[in-house]
Amino acid sequence: MMGIMDFIEAQRRVNILKELIKENNEAYYVNDAPKITDFEYDELFRELKRLENEYPLLITPDSPTQKVGDKISDGFKEYKHKYRLYSLDNSNNYEDLRKWYERVIKEFTIQNELELVVELKIDGLSCALSYEKGILKIGATRGNGIVGENITDNIKSIKGIPQKLSKPLNLEVRGEVYMPISSFEKLNEENIKRGLREFANPRNAAAGSLRQLDATVTAKRDLHFFAYTAISEEENLFKTHSEALALLKELGFNVNPNYKVVKGINPVIEQCEIWSTERFNQDYATDGMVIKINDLAKQNELGYTSRAPKWATAFKFPPEEVWTRLEGIELSIGKTGAVTPVALLTPVQLAGTIVKRASLHNFDEINRLRINIGNEVLIKKAAEIIPKVIKKREEEDLGIYETPKYCPVCNSPLIKPEGEVVLYCSNSKDCPAQIQGKIEFWASKEAMDIDGVGETIVEKLLEKKLISDFADLYKLTVEDFMQLDLIKEKSADNLYNAIQASKTPSMTKFLTALSIKHIGKETADLIANEYPTIDTIKTATEEELTKIDGIGEKAAKSIIDFFKDENNITILNKLQEYGVTPKGSAVEKISNIFEGKTFVITGTLSQPRNNFEEKIKQLGGKVSSSVSKKTSYVLAGENPGSKFDKATQLGVIILTERDFDLLAQRNNDEKKF
To answer: Same domain for 301 and 346?
Structure first.
């Protein structure tokens, strides 16, 4: 019999799993920047499904097990799919694969083995293409399966996607947009040279390229398309999945040739065994196999769960792990002075690439692993591309790598703030690594977004002693840039103009770009909403800052410390002298009816979230990213998640969109709600 304590513990764990899965869904589907491996994500998902099966009362409509994908980007128009795009259930062992087959067989009264199609699971971005009388009309991302992003202009630039079919059919074609591994490596090499960010893996490179707002950028990237299914309302066009694949090939689509029609589950497992190693010989990334019932009538008979077809499943390859030797440890210094240890390894093949470096995170992690230079270590790839050290050979005892006491760049003492695991270089003013890191970040897309000013340009400017901090970027002339190697007049003009164009940033961007410890974009936005000018921030006290919902003691102290530092004041004065003038809140107030009110927005709303944030600010309110006792209202859309739960626990008023609209229409005199 289930005990109440067991139920409470299961409920606690389910809420944690929901939040972790939603957070990683956003990282993967929206930001194209996964934080964990597919294997680790699937383990979280399986645990959630297991707990929900044990405790059905914990299943809620907002659970990731009840829906597909995640929210869509605000940058594209929404497109409601004609036919829903489902996700796939998956397994990572053959026992579970056999259980899936046994469940399917029980649904049919057949004596022979069931005919299946087994094909490679391409690691790309799922898309749906709608053709009317053979003409491509719409190309859309999967999104949440019901609503995706209309990316038709970008789709038209991709190899393997015909804009006109060889037959005038009404058809929806689904497939994966991917970037070949060779093209991915070339793109990253070019990005490094230009000082741009590297993509984590081919899937993210494809997603980032496909979701460019400027279709000409997409056209320049080497994107390809494998069609994997078709949907048609025309009778007798195809009766099996393999016939659909043959038709797609006939119509001019690229269909991955490495699929096989088999009978029974044993040949499926044989194919999984073969491709677990053979996949590394292909010029595209794969993360598993997809198994489908071949007969479409049987597919229709089986149907779907709330998020996945019952007639198909995926087998996910386990993460590859290999042993290699730790040859050295490199210490990297970031823009805030944070010291990050990086493992230098004997080169080894891992998941299709040669790995020479791996993350060690921090020195607490080194102590936990008890590793030292010379140890043989086990490494695996996080998010399928970023290697990390897991452990060392137990029998090897070479001691533990000694935590450094001095900065490897400027030899200043390293410090470890109370309550933190990271070491910092104490020389924020003169450490060359910190100076370069701050300048690079100032110019980055996340901060001032100065096109063309990346790592290489910053290095050259520092070498020539043309700048000493990010404020000096604004004193540079076209002639200064032409002193740099390989920079011609046109490029020099472009760099100069890009810097000049950044002189009037929003206060949020400006604060973010200053590289203040613990101050990211969201925190900067909260401060910018409260303090419209740098001068008002300078005079704020720690107590005043912590009164802002969402600003903790660490962030408040960092702000105070930053504006006490004479070097920082000098840089701010230089920025002012060069004409860099941050704007206050970009939202002009039209009323004070929400004055003193803090809102948290959660769930899927009828309009982009930015629209509601702007309206709240126009009416004098503030928007926070987290729910607390200080929160006045939570505006909740569909599938609101853990913020809704926390608001309920704290007794915070929860508004629907209609409630919010009614509240916003109140007269200025109605101050009490």
So the answer is: no
Residues with Cβ within 8 Å of residue 371, at least 6 apart in sequence: 326, 377, 389, 392, 398, 400, 401
What is the reported pLDDT for 668?
A: 42
Last residue of a domain, one of 21, 38, 66: 66
Residue 242 CB coordination number (10 Å):
18
Q: What is the DSSP string of 68-113?
A: -S-PPPTTS-EEE-SS------EESSHHHHHHHHHHHHHTS--SSP
Tell me the C-alpha distance between 372 and 246, whole Å. Answer: 56
Dihedrals φ, ψ of 205, to 5°?
A: -65, -40
544's CB contacts (< 8 A; 6+ apart) are none
Catalytic-labelled residue, pool 67, 121, 335, 617: 121
> In the chain, how many domains are there?
5
pLDDT for residue 624: 79
How many residues does the structure list for the chain?
Answer: 673
What's the Cα-to-Cα distance from 74 to each of 149, 216, 604, rounded to whole Å? Answer: 9, 19, 12
Facing residues of 209 across strands? none
Helices (H), strands (E): how many in the chain?
Answer: 24, 22
Residues in the chain with pLDDT < 50? 1, 70-73, 383-384, 667-673
Q: Which residues contact 137 (CB under 8 A, 6 or more apart)?
A: 130, 131, 152
What range defines the domain where residue 13 resides?
4-66
Give the end of a domain, one of 543, 577, 611.
577
Same domain for 190 and 102: yes
Q: Please write down the HEC assignment for all residues of 595-648.
A: CCCEEEEECECCCCHHHHHHHHHHCCCEEECCCCCCCCEEEECECCCHHHHHHH
pLDDT digits (tens, 9 = 90+) for 555-571: 899 999 999 999 999 99
The pLDDT value given to residue 611 = 77
Does residue 121 carry a catalytic annotation? yes
d(CA 248, CA 165): 9
Question: Where do runs of H (alpha helix) occur along 92-235?
Answer: 94-106, 152-155, 181-193, 202-210, 215-220
Residue-wise burial string across 255-292, b where 16 or more C-beta atoms lie within 10 A, e elsewhere? bbebbeebeebeebbebbeebbeebbebebbbbbbbbb
Residue that is written with structure tokens 């069609």 in the block = 227
Cβ neighbours of 417 (radius 10 Å): 12
Measured between its terminal Cα atoms, the distance across the chain in Å is 46
pTM exceeds 0.90, yes or no = no
**Domain assignment of residue 42, yes or no:** yes
Residues 312 and 325 in one domain: no
CB atoms within 10 A of CB 367: 12
The CATH number of residue 61's host domain is 1.10.287.610
Strand-pair category, 312-316 with 90-91: parallel
Phi-psi region of 578 (alpha: psi -120 to 50; beta: other; left: phi over 0): alpha
Position 197 scores a pLDDT of: 63
Q: Which of 401, 377, 372 is nearest to 325 (CA)?
A: 377
Q: Is residue 582 part of a domain?
A: no
Query: Residues 55-100: pLDDT tens digits?
Result: 777 777 667 776 555 444 455 788 999 999 988 888 888 999 999 9
Q: How far apart are CA 391 and CA 321, in angstroms?
A: 11
Q: Residue 410, Cβ neighbours under 10 Å: how many?
A: 18
Task: Read off the tokens for 76.
Answer: 């594209």
Burial of 166 (0-12, 13-18, 19+ CB in 10 A): exposed
Residues with Cβ within 8 Å of 444's Cβ and at least 6 positions away in sequence, in order, are: 197
Please indicate, yes or no, whether residues 100 and 60 belong to a single structural domain of this protein.
no
The two three-digit tokens of residue 454, written as one number: 């990346």
Extended beta strands in 306-463, E state? 312-316, 321-333, 339-350, 353-359, 376-382, 386-392, 414-415, 424-425
